[in-house]
Recover the amino acids of this structure.
């Protein structure tokens, strides 16, 4: 029986590059966002507040990143999975730091969950676009094809 296994970890430099790319994409869209990246344990590695981004959306970005890594799925998908179960949705989203709306994505490398990115401050669709731009900037993608790294 194996008692340990090697794991991949997101580097601080990659996390900082991703938050910069996400904020840059937001600027191209004409919006201001906050971006957070957490490691596989939900601890923040990088955070960037875009010029003019709403102060409260900083915590929402952190919550989206935490939720994406904690449940291993995009936060928009998480909401859709629970939307037909109002009691479960209410109970889970009532927990601290859980955000069930788009803008949070898990980060995977070679199939391993290594972190999460959360973006908040614009529309749900724009937050999602910016999160994807952050991952693309470090050579990672979202969805089933998320096997690069």
């Amino acid at each position: 029986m194996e008692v340990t296994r090697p794991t991949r970890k997101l580097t601080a430099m990659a996390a900082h590059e991703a938050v910069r790319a996400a904020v840059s994409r937001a600027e191209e869209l004409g919006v201001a966002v906050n971006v957070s990246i957490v490691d596989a344990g939900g601890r923040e590695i990088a955070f960037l507040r875009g010029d003019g981004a709403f102060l409260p959306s900083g915590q929402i970005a952190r919550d989206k990143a935490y939720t994406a890594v904690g449940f291993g799925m995009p936060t928009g998908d998480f909401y859709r999975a629970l939307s037909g179960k109002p009691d479960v949705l209410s109970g889970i989203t009532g927990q601290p730091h859980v955000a069930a709306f788009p803008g949070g994505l898990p980060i995977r490398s070679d199939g391993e969950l290594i972190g999460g990115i959360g973006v908040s401050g614009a529309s749900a669709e724009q937050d999602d676009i910016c999160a994807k731009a952050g991952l693309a900037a470090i050579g990672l993608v979202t969805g089933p094809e998320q096997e690069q790294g």
